[in-house]
Predict the structure.
Amino acid sequence: MTEIRTIGIVGAGTMGSGIAQVFAQFGHKVLIRDIAQEQVSLGLETIGKSLRRSVEKGRMSAAEMDSLLGRIVPVTELGRLAEADFIVEAIVEDAGAKVALFHELDRLARPGVILASNTSSISITRLAGATARPDRVIGMHFMNPVPVMRLVELIRGLATSDETFTASRELTLRLEKLPVEARDFPGFISNRVLMPMINEAVFALMEGVGSAEAIDTVMKLGMNHPMGPLELADLIGLDTCLAILEILHREIGDDRYRPCPLLRKHVEAGWLGRKSGRGFHAYEKR
């Protein structure tokens, strides 16, 4: 398998920019791509803010920050990813969009290159089926915020080879992350457990069991969670939470995954959480 030096990241949003930052931090050249220059610039701005905080806290020097940023190359042409030795997809959580992208990446990437998806719920086998290299497709689900969270779920598709899994696991370890293998099942491990909890918290809010602040405080102080479920939903993005729950509900066919109507209303109103300035709590708009 090709030595992995250059990483391609598709999607410059919260997850894509975080993944790009971590790969660059550990010496990789990173090509970060989005459909428009504005999106790529916003991703670089997010990375810059994160790194400046690290400099202010003494975790790295200004020179190290500049060196890291120099390894991140912004691109808008998907064809530039033909240079990559390993590609991570981190676009919107939409199966149709991801399938179309994997078809294109398969056409562009060299034969030995692994195509990884940061999907939090969509079938890896389905994405692999859009390519002529299903043995080289894998799920690589990073947690948010990527520079801080150590966990990475690694998900084999039906045809994912041992070679691909081993290479992806070793790459994850080189990033000082902890890889955990999960089956290719809706929601994998993390969201199969997390999303019903978030959904139930939204039902509790809708039914007036407690305020958003009360629900989050109970879970933080009573259950020792570092963040309440409604705060966490705001961090993830309520649109992403809704998309994952819809996939769980549709694919598993169990009404315990039925999205709470209040969650759907918030998404319809554009109250998506931190990224929009308002979710179940209010934030300074980005």
Q: What stands out?
A: The first strand starts at residue 6 and ends at 10. The CA atoms of residues 92 and 231 lie 21 Å apart. Residues 37-56 form the longest helix (20 residues).
